[in-house]
Amino acid sequence: MRKNVLFIFTLLAVLLCFGAPARAMYVPDYEKVTAQELKYAENFYKNLKIDTSQFAKGKYSIYIPKVDTWNYSVVVQLEKYDQDLSFKGYRSIYVTLDPNGVGMGPGGVTMTGWLYDADINAIRVRISSFNTGYIIADEMWIYNRKDKTFRYLPFTERIYPGKDALGNPCWTNDNGLTVTKDGILVYIGTDGINKPFSDVSKKHWAFNTINNVYKNGYIKGYSDGRFKPAGNITRAEFAAMLNKLLSDKYPAGRTADNTGIFDSFPSGHWAYNAVYSLTGYMDRAEALGIFGSRFEPDRQITREEVVALVHAALKNHPGFAGAGSGTASVKDLQSSRFPDSVEFSLRHGIVSGYPDGTFRPAGRITRAEAAAVLNRLMALVQS
Asked: Has UniProt tagged this entry with the keyword Signal (predicted)?
């Protein structure tokens, strides 16, 4: 399970209050809900209060905030997980909130009750639109009975990567249900809603590109919620991303076993298996020609190394048999170590040059540019 931001809330007082807005909300139906609905959900979680001081005695207490202008359908689930966060069971409490007094009325009340199982150690609060049925937000907190701490559990710790019946990448949540790829973590920032990363605004040239690649599971951000689009990317990071995409889209293309060709590449490195899996798409000589005998996984990858990897992996793919329809007229083509790879990627629209007519082959590729490469490959590569 992927790791993300961990918000540790220690029980310094009997009542645990979320005094500041949630840094992120998981919004499964984010393309269908309105900005107003998300704003209400943000305010709801801001004012939600959960008392876990009586958990050891089998009791819970949850303050449900008020609503004032439209209908909420709130589900509170008391859930049970093992140490590996594997889901073991739950009990749901349905609450309808309405300013006109339907259901529990407008909120502003404290729900108390008994846990149905002594091992209950998590609380999930899901908000839906009473009128449309769309899930607006789905948040969860987990209680550690051993040290009596209570922390926010990010959605990324509640999902498992997998594939659907057609072989497409998808996520499965902790209840065993397939999670829509449109579901993202939404960061509430200065420019509004629907941001999977706090530092990529809707005005960024790669906003949609980064979102799309993220939703398909080929990139991820940092633990502080940032993507760092202008930051550089290492050889290991790009190799792992490209390998994941090719493994999903073009598994039959991996025909070679080049394990161990790089000197001093420790088998304990996090990207060891991904790197050698990627080299399975190319000849030994091609892999060594790109990186030499030492892979140096933490070295920043260059633009020409990116296109060389893509070229070596895909040149025999039937979708790239032709010359391509794009232009390859960049001024510095012949200054590259891999001019054929640069031309291949330009002609097939995988990369583009700069406005001044250069490609800058030895330049470092940014994380946003790497996302753009993956996004274009997603559309071009099929198994």
From this structure: yes
